[in-house]
């Protein structure tokens, strides 16, 4: 399991969107990025569909996930 607490692009606030990990400053779950990418969407499409998320946040999340996989 990924330790999202080490990724500065995300936050978890008890009671906000059921306490799931969100992109900082949004109500958009990190899981939405991975679900959309797995469904065939591009990063550009995701950013268009979820305008509160920045490209920098997406890049940090993807880099964090990649590092976590490399450590496993």
Question: pLDDT under 50 segments (min length 5)?
Answer: none
Q: Trace the largest sheet across and list its strands.
A: 1-2
Overall spatial form: globular
Question: What average pLDDT do the residues reach?
Answer: 94
Distance between the termini: 9 Å
CATH architecture: Orthogonal Bundle
The CATH homologous superfamily is named Winged helix-like DNA-binding domain superfamily/Winged helix DNA-binding domain
- In the CATH hierarchy, the third-tier topology is known as Arc Repressor Mutant, subunit A
CA-atom Rg in angstroms: 12 Å
Major sheet size, sense and barrel closure: 2 strands, antiparallel
H-E string: EEHHH
Number of helices: 3
Whole-number total of structural domains: 1
Report the β-strand fraction as a percent range.
5-15%
Helix content class: 40-55%
List keywords for this structure.
mainly alpha; Arc Repressor Mutant, subunit A; two-stranded antiparallel sheet; 3 helices
Structure description:
Helix content is 46%, strand content 6%. It is mostly helical and 72 residues long. It has one domain (4-71): Arc Repressor Mutant, subunit A (Orthogonal Bundle), CATH 1.10.10. The chain starts with 9 loop residues before the first strand and ends with a helix.
């Amino acid at each position: 399991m990924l330790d999202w607490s080490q990724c500065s692009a995300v936050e978890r606030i008890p009671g906000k969107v059921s306490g799931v990990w969100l992109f900082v400053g949004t109500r958009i779950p990190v899981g939405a990025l991975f679900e959309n990418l797995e469904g065939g969407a591009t990063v550009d499409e995701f950013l268009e569909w979820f305008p509160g998320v920045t490209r920098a946040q997406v890049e940090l999340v993807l880099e964090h996930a990649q590092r976590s996989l490399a450590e496993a």
